[in-house]
Q: What sequence folds into this?
């Protein structure tokens, strides 16, 4: 009898403490936060979310007071990051810092130094005025930005003077931590680039500011949607134009710019993808994948993909488009789009069933087909529990990836007052760090000559994944293509060789360091997420031979 009781207790113990051993793709990760969710102190609507370098998430939204902005930073398990702000939370009132009457948050981005950039606007007697602010890695206003203030208003810069309405809606940070911001104005938009210290970057466009108008002509209201910057500095800018009678009838435009702000004319129609207005298809997100294809998400949860040259990719989904399949009797809105390193899209938003708004997470494969074994035919619907109330009814749910493949999603829940809520969804594991390899050390080499490593083949990455490649003090070649110093992407099966010029002195060494791995964050400083591996190649020149007298 005692043995039977002991066995029963052991079975119960294993069941209670086995965690998520049987969790499937699309399930809530119950080990995240408390029971699969993190509820933050009361705030208001979530506006944006980004990944942090340690597998965590940073979430920005409106604070307790309408003119405050609130930022919460969580570690990979949902624990509040004690190194950031006050126990993981920051709430700042910019009107008191800048002497403005109000502030409305619209977007957030990150530098590769883990600094946080936020943008929004102040509505005053002469219209809107854009605002930029920068927080250091600990969540304090950055004293190196905007002459020590940590924040600035755009109307103080000459190119913005005289503009009737300056309302920023999209942010991105490049690999040099320059800040790109897109603002609405009366007709058209302005795209400006700022240095890390908060001055206009005069090397971009016209003294730091590019005026963007509807490519087909006419005076229409514009809405900036998203900015992304690839490793070579190419900018992808998505916006919609009010060519119809309402926001349900807007023309979608994606413009591609080189690092200096000039049109990439071999993209689309002389630098643009222009898609006529269609009911319900308001553009909400634009992403470029690691194969340089462009993905567009509209608010009615429809994805489309375009080739490197900006032509509809009919191999994707159903003749170029993929829809989130909804249960009968439901409706949905989507605002969030994230790509896995395999280029497979993740769409997030909200779904309404029986007047109950719940979180929606949809997974597609690289060809635009729903991932059948993810939740219910590719769509996970998460309600109460773990949420304490209904989620944001307007599709405002934003996801970031963890290196284990899990999807962290931030949204707003409304049990009593609005507050941030973050959950994690199970998904297939990712491996973005390739296998180690010895690539050689050359000795007794001639002075100032090209010296080559042992070639090696990339392996052990998740199938279909492309990961970052960067090099210091040398050049690298992929599959015997020309050598380069520029950042790039590699995948399983690629043959890599490193070279450098040997030292110009006798018995001197030189070392090249190749770093492979991690997925590229095109909005947030080009930060490398998910881990990487370094490969070292060195050379030693021959010694000086001194002949005897």
A:
């Amino acid at each position: 009898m005692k043995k039977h009781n002991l066995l029963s207790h052991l079975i119960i113990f294993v069941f209670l403490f086995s965690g998520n051993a049987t969790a499937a793709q699309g399930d809530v990760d119950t080990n995240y936060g408390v029971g699969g969710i993190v509820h933050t102190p009361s705030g208001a609507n979530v506006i944006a979310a980004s990944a942090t370098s340690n597998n965590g998430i940073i979430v920005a939204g409106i604070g307790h007071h309408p003119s405050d902005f609130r930022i919460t930073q969580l570690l990979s398990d949902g624990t509040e990051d004690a190194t950031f702000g006050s126990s993981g939370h920051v709430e700042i009132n910019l009107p008191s810092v800048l002497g403005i009457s109000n502030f409305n948050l619209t977007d957030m981005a990150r530098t590769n130094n883990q600094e946080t950039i936020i943008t929004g606007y102040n509505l005053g007697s002469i219209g809107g005025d854009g605002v930029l602010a920068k927080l250091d890695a600990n969540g304090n206003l950055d004293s190196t930005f905007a002459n020590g203030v940590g924040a600035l208003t755009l109307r103080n810069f000459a190119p913005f003077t005289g503009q009737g309405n300056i309302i920023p809606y999209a942010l991105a940070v490049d690999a040099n931590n320059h800040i790109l911001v897109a603002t609405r104005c009366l007709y058209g938009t302005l795209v400006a680039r700022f240095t890390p210290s908060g001055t206009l970057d005069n090397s971009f466009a016209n003294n730091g500011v590019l005026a963007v108008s509807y490519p087909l002509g006419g005076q229409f209201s514009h809405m900036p949607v998203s900015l992304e910057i690839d490793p070579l500095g190419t900018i992808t800018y998505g916006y919609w134009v009010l060519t119809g009678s309402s926001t349900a009838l807007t023309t979608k435009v994606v413009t591609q710019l080189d690092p200096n702000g000039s049109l990439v004319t071999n993209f689309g129609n002389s630098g643009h993808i222009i898609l006529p207005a269609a009911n319900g298809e308001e553009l909400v997100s634009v992403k470029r994948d690691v194969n340089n294809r462009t993905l567009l998400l509209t608010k009615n949860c429809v994805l489309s993909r375009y080739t490197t040259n900006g032509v509809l990719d009919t191999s994707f989904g159903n003749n170029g488009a993929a829809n989130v399949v909804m249960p009968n009797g439901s409706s949905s809105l989507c605002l969030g789009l994230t790509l896995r390193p395999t280029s497979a899209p993740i769409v997030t938003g909200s779904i309404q069933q029986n007047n109950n708004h719940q979180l929606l997470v949809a997974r597609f494969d690289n060809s635009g087909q729903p991932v059948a074994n993810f939740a219910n035919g590719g769509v996970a619907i998460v309600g109460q529990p773990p949420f304490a109330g209904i989620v944001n009814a307007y599709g405002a749910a934003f996801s970031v990836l963890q290196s284990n493949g899990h999807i962290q999603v931030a949204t707003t829940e409304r049990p009593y007052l609005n507050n941030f809520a973050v959950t994690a969804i199970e998904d297939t594991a990712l491996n973005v760090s390739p296998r180690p390899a010895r690539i050689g050390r050359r000795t007794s080499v001639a002075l100032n000559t090209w010296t080559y490593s042992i070639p090696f083949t990339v392996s052990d990455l998740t199938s279909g994944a492309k990961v970052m490649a960067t090099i210091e003090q040398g050049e690298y070649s992929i599959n015997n293509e020309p050598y380069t110093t520029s950042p790039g992407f590699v995948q399983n099966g690629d043959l890599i060789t490193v070279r450098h010029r040997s030292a110009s002195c006798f018995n001197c060494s030189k070392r090249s360091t190749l770093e492979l791995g991690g997925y590229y964050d095109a909005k947030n400083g080009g930060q490398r997420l998910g881990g990487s591996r370094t490969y070292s190649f060195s050379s030693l020149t021959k010694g000086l031979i001194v002949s005897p007298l």
The mean pLDDT is 91. DSSP finds two helices and 40 strands in the chain. Residues 2-17 form the longest helix (16 residues).
